[in-house]
Amino acid sequence: MYIDIGANLAGRQFRHDWPKVVQQAQDHGVAQILITGTSVEASQAASGMALKHPGVLFSTSGIHPHGAKDCSPQALNTLREVAQAPHVVAIGECGLDFNRMFSPQKDQEAAFHAQLELAAELKLPVFLHERDAYPRFAEILAEWRPELPGAVVHCFTGEREALQHYLELDCHIGITGWVCDERRGSGLAELVPEIPDERLLIETDAPWLTPRTLKPRPKRNLPEFLPHIAERIAELRGQSLAHVARVSTQNAQALFSMPTAG
Ligand SMILES: [Zn+2]
């Protein structure tokens, strides 16, 4: 079995058929899915979806760095309320994205600090997003890391120095179908074998980042493609697919205190 630790099922692209998407994922061995909360509204929606599929769907509560300017005190209060539900297992996604700069850097940093503080208060792990924001991201995370029960740098696409630094900060590393991209994924492919077994997590980031090795190429990425990504990871690491499935599942269940799928 597999656990997709990052799927944006609360997004517009899944509004009409998310229950079917979840069923198809389960049919492909993806037994549990963590739905990413990227805004107050998405975090509320994700929690509502998880409530309907106990033991299968879980969710996070957070504001993506793109929306950092919306991270008001009221928004943080709502994120805190959403995070009270037992199926909401992490704060995030939060972090820094200097690639597209949809929010100014100072707003991104303030929202990142505020959500790390919330996670520390609630004793929840954090689901982190970092794009082109190393080393500033690591500096801020390092301040809070001792107070956090766990952290995953989701969709890691950085350089070796960043990877080593995140591992030193005792972070888990989330690998997506980016690793299947023969052009921009080649640097990541080299680093995938350097992630220790006990730090590896796998995710689709659906509907984004459709693995380029899927033929024919689907219109949107789906959690059911996770085994395809795991196969590529296993090949790069020189491990069996069963091994990658087992360690990544154990890691996700331990980090997010998820029950074993029944
Ligand atoms: Zn992200």
Structural class of the secondary elements? alpha/beta
Give me the CATH superfamily: Metal-dependent hydrolases
3D shape: globular
Low-confidence stretches: none
Sheet with the most strands: spatial strand order = 1-2-3-4-5-6-7-8
Fraction of residues in helices?
25-40%
Can you summarize the main beta sheet? Answer: 8 strands, parallel
What is the helix tally?
A: 9
Order of helices and strands: EHEHEHEHEHEHEHEHH
* CATH topology type: TIM Barrel
Q: Per DSSP, what share of the residues sits in E-state strands of 2 or more residues?
A: 15-25%
Number of individual domains: 1
Small-molecule binders: zinc ion
N-to-C CA distance: 11 Å
Strand element count: 8
Using the coordinates above, name the CATH class: Alpha Beta
- Annotated CATH architecture: Alpha-Beta Barrel
Cα radius of gyration in angstroms: 17 Å
Question: Regarding quaternary structure, how should these chains be classified?
Answer: single chain
**What's the rounded overall pLDDT mean?**
97
List keywords for this structure.
262 residues, alpha/beta, TIM Barrel, eight-stranded parallel beta sheet, 9 helices, 39% helix, 17% strand, globular, binds zinc ion
Describe the structure concisely for a colleague.
This protein has 9 helices and 8 strands. The protein has helices at 18-27, 40-52, 73-82, 105-122, 136-144, 160-168, 186-191, 226-237, 241-255; strands at residues 2-7, 30-35, 57-61, 88-97, 126-131, 151-154, 172-175, 200-202.
Structural summary, described in words:
- This protein has 262 residues and is α/β, with parallel strands linked by helices.
- The chain has one domain (2-255): Metal-dependent hydrolases (TIM Barrel, Alpha-Beta Barrel), CATH 3.20.20.
- Helices cover 39% and strands 17% of the residues.
- The protein is built from 9 helices and 8 strands.
- The chain has helices at residues 18-27, 40-52, 73-82, 105-122, 136-144, 160-168, 186-191, 226-237, 241-255, and strands spanning 2-7, 30-35, 57-61, 88-97, 126-131, 151-154, 172-175, 200-202.
- It has an 8-stranded parallel beta sheet with strand order 1-2-3-4-5-6-7-8.
- The chain binds zinc ion.
- Zinc ion binds at residues 93, 129, 154-155.
